[in-house]
Amino acid sequence: xxxxxMAAYALGPKSVDFDKVWGxxxxxxxxxxxxxxxxKKDWDxxxxxVYDICVAIPEPLSSRLYSSMRRCIEMHVENLYEKIAAxxxxxxxxxxxxxWKIYYKGTNYVHRLFGYLNNQFVKSKRSVEGDAYANYASFxxxxxxxxxxxxxxxxxxxxxxEPILDKLINLLLAAIGQxxxxxxxxxxxxxxxxxxxxxxxxEFEYSPNEPIALGVKLNYREPxxxxxQEAFESRFxxxxxxxxxxxxxxLLADLTCSKxxxxxxxxxxxxxxxxxxxxx
Length: 280
What we know:
- α5 crosses α8 and α8 packs across α9 (about 225-255).
- The two termini are about 30 Å apart.
- The chain has about 280 residues and is mainly alpha-helical.
- Helix content is about 75%, strand content about 0%.
- Keywords: Ubl conjugation pathway.
- InterPro entries: Cullin, Cullin_N, Cullin_repeat-like_dom_sf.
- This is Cullin family protein.
C-alpha cells in the first residue's frame, strides 16, 4: 500500500465522474469487508479512486464519498443482521463470533483503504468544528463525522448488536454460570471472543497520541470500555454478586465459623481472578 499511496499523492487533481468511480469502488468495499481476495493492483486502483475523489476539481467530492460509504456499510450490516436474526439460539454465539471476526478484520482493511478520506476530510472537518466550539466541548456529543473504521463499528453496534444484545448476554451469562458449576463450555474460546468484541468495537475511538486541541472529540488516554461496561460488565457483576451471595449463605449455614472464613477468602480470591479473566 505504501508505494501506491506515494504514487497517488504525486498525482494532480482532476475532474471525476463520481457515479462511475463509486460504482466501481462500492462492490470492492463489500468484497474487502467479506475478506475476499484482492490483487495488489486492484487494491492500488481502489486507493487511487479514493484519492481522486477526495482531490477532485473543480471541488473535492469527499463529503459525497463519506455519505456513500455510510450507506454502503449500513446496507452491508443490515444484510448481516438478516442472517444472524434467523440463527437459532443454540448457535447464536458461534455464528455471531464468526461473523464478527470477518467484519472486524474487513473493517480494518477498509479503514486503511480510505486513509486519505480519514485524513483529508474527516479529521479536517472535525478540527474545524472543534475550533469553532472548543469552549463548549465538554457539553457536546461526539461528532457525527467519524473515521471510516469508527463509523463501521458504530453501525455494527446500532444495526446488529443492539437488536440481539439481550440474547447474547443471556447466553453468555448462562455459559458462565455453567462454568462456575464445573461444566466447562465446549465453546469457551467463542465466549471469550464475543466478550472481547464488546471491547474491540471501541478500538477505533482510541487515539492516545491525538492532540487535545482537536476539540469535540473525546481524547482517551486509555482504551474506552463504555460499551463493554454497559452491555456486559454491569450484568455480569450483578449475576456474580447474586451467585456468590447465595453460595455464601449456604456456606454459612453448613460450615463452622473458621471454615466459613477460609471458604470466604478462597471465594473472594477466585472472584477477583474471574473478573480479571473476563477483561483480558
